[in-house]
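request received
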Amino acid sequence: MKGKSGIPSGGRSPFNWRSLFEPFRPRREGTMPAGLIIVVMVLALCVAGLLDADSTLRKSNAKGDGWRNEIAKTVASVTDTLHINFFRNSIDDALGKNQGTKIDVEELLRQQAEAESAASAEAAKKVPELPAPTPVTPMKIWVGGDSITQTFGTSFQRITQSTGIFTPTLDFHVSTGLARPDYYNWPEHLVKTVLPANPSILVIMFGANDGQNMIGADGKVLERTSEPWMAEYRRRVAATMDLLKSPDNQRITIWCGPPPMGPGTKTRGMDQMSYIYWSEAQSRPWIQYFDTWPFFSDSNFVFAANLPNADGVVRGTRQKDNVHFSTVGGDRLSWAVIDRIGKLVDLSAGRVTPPPAQAPPASLVERTEIPPSMPGAE
Amino acid sequence: MLFPTVDFAVFFLVVFTGSWLLRPHKIAWRWFILASSFVFYGWWDWNYLVLLSLSIGINWFLGLAVFRSLTPEGERTNASRWLVRIAVVVNLGILGYFKYFDFFISTIADKMRSIGISVDAPILNIILPIGISFFIFQAISYVIDIGRGQWRKPLTILDFAVYLSFFAHLVAGPIVRASEFAPQLDELPDPRYVRSAEAFMLIFRGMFKKVVISSFLAIQIVDPVFANPNAYGPLAVLLAIYAYAIQIYADFSGYTDIAIGVALLLGIRFPQNFDSPYIALSLQDFWSRWHMTLSRWLRDYLYIPLGGNRGSKAMTYRNLFLVMIIGGLWHGANWTFVVWGAIHGSYLVAERIVKEKWKGHELGLPPLLVKAMQWFLVFNVVCLAWVFFRATSVDEAFTLLGRLFASSGSSAGVSLLLIFVIVGSVASQFVPQRFPQKAEVWFATWAPALQIAALAGGLVLVDALGPEGIAPFIYFQF
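response:
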């Protein structure tokens, strides 16, 4: 049968739903009429959408899809009522995915406050004074965070180990941060796993994955970098910082702000987050904010991938994605952080003089104040 | 817009429906496909559309000018030669600006610093528009084919715009020639016989390769080891190298599978881009199976114009080596890509020399063993070259290779599942093509309801097995 333009019209027999359940006999091997393909694709996507509703909602919440988020919520609500999400959730259970608990940071803080004596609260008003580590009594140091910490942390672990006065532990989790406790619950991990090991120093870095929408305490989606988002993120940062306080004021946390991200990256709001970390750290002596920005930017604080180290040789500090550090960048930051630790703790018993080929130039310094919006920020 | 996303699924449903409804109306259909392609590309950044539109306009005009400057018999003239040169220079100029300007400037600044002259390099931090290398190469092939008299029918600007911007191949290929694509614009495919089974299989296979295999290998071992090789021991490093070979294949061929499947559903057939490259018994064989449309482009527009194998043996070797170096640089502005190209170029030359020397000689070994040895050698040379392709710098690549001989180091990330995925992925390339083809034919006979269930189940499974979020395809950066 040919249409007006000479093209076969595709058959105009009325659609019969029963034919969907009968074996298909293609007129030509491996083919199907376009009309039936539309039916198959639409129904397959609808069924997949229903089965996958929870996962779609999680992603939509994170991205902040506006009206699409409303659709995702409605679909997830329907599938939850009808228990259609059972199939996908069973797969997730089997794979051990999305096991984030609903742990309440406020509850952790309340427990901490109950355990804290008045004396220890007073002690926490000063920067902790830690005993000098020696090769005989090395200091426990923990480094952790997201995938940026993966490269930095591996360098840091190697370098601190080589000083002879630290016992380092690396603990990174890819694609994590403080925005998605349903995906990875850092406060819980810190309280339940990290702090019981009693590290004297924690080096922590978040932010690169946090430029996404969040679910607020009331269950509402907070648009990223909006005022309510900032307030909620600040609350989470402050709570996490409070959790890191030790009762005897014998723990320092070096909270590293995220570095500037290069062209082509999709990270957002790094400068605003840095400002939150810095400003919250000001009232907490046990938290020492470390400004990584100047170490990975040019003299105008604009992102630079290739930078000179102390020996004057320019090297690539970032990976090709312009987000993660190269080994050179990891080493550079590690020596800078060790230098900062050296200002708080006596490290003279260790080998802490950096090779010029690995360390940043001495002229680079952290800033003492972080502006709410940085030059060169995305 | 990324292929394995809800956005693309909805977009494609609209395009599929609109395309088949409008197909009988040739002009309306072309405008519809063009608009769809612009939406697809503009989804990343609407600013990119300016460059794409400029590229369409300039190359269409130059193609027409070249055609008009040919003799009535289609013979080249001085004017046509100059116009082709202008087209090549303009296109490579655009590519060079976006891709190589910063690299060039920083290299010069480094050299000057090394001789004691301090300069403040004017690095522009230029953002590379997605897929620029692919559509620029297609545009060059169009103008050159006209200039050579191989394509005697200059396209209308609408056809050329559809050809250059067609969303299925726009951002990461395959690199399709006008002679392959344009005739299909005039054909009226029968909507009763859409090759759905092959298309669905390709799309599913592509998604599985990209979302599950490629992502798993990247997160599990490749990214951590390449980021800090000094922390890892020989086993982890060796597996990371093999894993990257699989990752880049799964990522790129996965994208191509989806692209071919999507185009097929719209009634357009793209050329094959991968043909089980890791079963190759020689590097020449590898390049006839890996990124086949780029290999073909380099052969026709670089190797042959350089003289190909028409001159002396030494010239043939030089041409082979040069083509691979330039092919390496096409991937990006970094010495790592130059080394990658040099390894391939050197080995291709060595392979030719050895073949010529050993012609007629028998090793006296069982043929199967010889083949196994050839395969092992080629596979490992390819993997060695991938180390430079993946590393941030040549130094880092050597650091990683040095760790293969380290006496200690972490084995984090090494697991039975990882080894199974690597071995299984290589082994799957030895499966004869007839098996998936039979599966496609069988799938097409399933009741549509069963097909719906299988497709839906497959989508959920891919999503569940994949990581949170979809990483961009590796080849988008090229």
